Amino acid sequence: MTIAEAVDTLMRDGMPLRFTAYDGSSVGPPDSPLGLELTTPRGLAYLMTAPGDLGMARAYVTGDLLLHGVHPGDPYDALVSLQNNLRFRAPNAPEALAVVRALGLGNLRPPPPPPQEAAPRWRRAVEGLRHSKGRDAGMISHHYDVSNRFYELVLGPSMTYTCAVYRTPEDTLEQAQAEKYDLVCRKLDLQPGQRLLDVGCGWGGMVRHAAREYGVHALGVTLSRQQASWAKEAIDREGLGDLAEVRHLDYRDVVESGFDAVSSIGLTEHIGVRNYPAYFAHLRDRLRPEGRLLNHCITRTHNRRQDIGAFLDRYVFPDGELTGSGRIITEAQDAGLEVMHEENLRRHYALTLTGWGRNLRDHWDEAVAEVGEGTARVWGLYMAGSRLAFERNEIQLHQVLATRTTADGRDGFPLRPAW
């Protein structure tokens, strides 16, 4: 049995695109514009020892599995075709044994994973308990300390790694990111001279926008040293040092209080669902009475706790967790905040990821020179897959706006939204 024949055995409706293997075998429509090529025995061992998305990711990241007909910086079209048409079936015991024998028992010995892969969760315990300060710092570094130059290539001039807000589909990525920051500022009703705390501030985009456009005194904190360094340079470059500050700091270590507003844009995904009560209580305590909190994060379509999947956990967001907007709202309310408004920006994130994928494709050679082809492949795969998930309502993006209402019921809001 050839490799292609073994693969075909596992297909419920046949291979939807052309598949070729290093043993010279092939299966699937010869005229397919898209194709999969298995180039090495190591790639086969990855597929056999980690069935599902982890094995395919390992083989793809190392170049042992190639996607033809798409650019590695933006393999979206291939993922759409595979998700629409690739259907596996569970072979019976004799079939499974025949496949394994044909492909070789030696391939059941797992090869070392690619260097871009984080350790499995059980091995991360040496860095501390899940979502402890020390372990969180390591997991954040895994993703965000890749290379500031790489992020500049992918994210564009805004250096903003969160969902943008598109007024029209024709908006540029930069216009949409500026609108996102401005929408957050308007929801928080920022006024000159007020104090803003931005937790998980990234490269300081929100801090700089709020200081520049609204005249507020803005403090941002991030666990990434590279982000903090880039943000400080940007603040100095824009002459905002009298209004804006970014610290390399865990949000749990912010001791100042009395802020007029707190923004959290893309942090909640990293803190762990079981930590939501402490998270919202800490942010509540940073606010003055009638102060506002805007929480912006990726969510699930349901409110059950669910891990993010093997590929994302090992290659993209180690220890990341997602749940639904209902859980976010519940925890904010249980912490004593009054929830005033929520908004789903799911389709906006699909458009944002389209822009990032285009940037990676257009700057592919420089990106590969900066971080290596394996890491660049991880990002192309992750962003294309995430775009598809947002488009198909498998994940969502919610903004939840809340306030620290006083004991006598003052919330600081007008009767109708002003943003």
Automatic annotation (TrEMBL):
<dbReference type="GO" id="GO:0008610">
    <property type="term" value="P:lipid biosynthetic process"/>
</dbReference>
<dbReference type="InterPro" id="IPR050723">
    <property type="entry name" value="CFA/CMAS"/>
</dbReference>
<dbReference type="GO" id="GO:0008168">
    <property type="term" value="F:methyltransferase activity"/>
</dbReference>
<dbReference type="InterPro" id="IPR029063">
    <property type="entry name" value="SAM-dependent_MTases_sf"/>
</dbReference>
<comment type="similarity">
    <text>Belongs to the CFA/CMAS family.</text>
</comment>
<dbReference type="Pfam" id="PF02353">
    <property type="entry name" value="CMAS"/>
</dbReference>
<keyword id="KW-0949">S-adenosyl-L-methionine</keyword>
<dbReference type="GO" id="GO:0032259">
    <property type="term" value="P:methylation"/>
</dbReference>
<dbReference type="InterPro" id="IPR020803">
    <property type="entry name" value="MeTfrase_dom"/>
</dbReference>
<keyword id="KW-0808">Transferase</keyword>
<feature type="domain" description="Polyketide synthase-like methyltransferase">
    <location>
        <begin position="150"/>
        <end position="410"/>
    </location>
</feature>
<dbReference type="InterPro" id="IPR003333">
    <property type="entry name" value="CMAS"/>
</dbReference>
<keyword id="KW-0443">Lipid metabolism</keyword>
<keyword id="KW-0489">Methyltransferase</keyword>
<protein>
    <submittedName>
        <fullName>Methyltransferase domain-containing protein</fullName>
    </submittedName>
</protein>
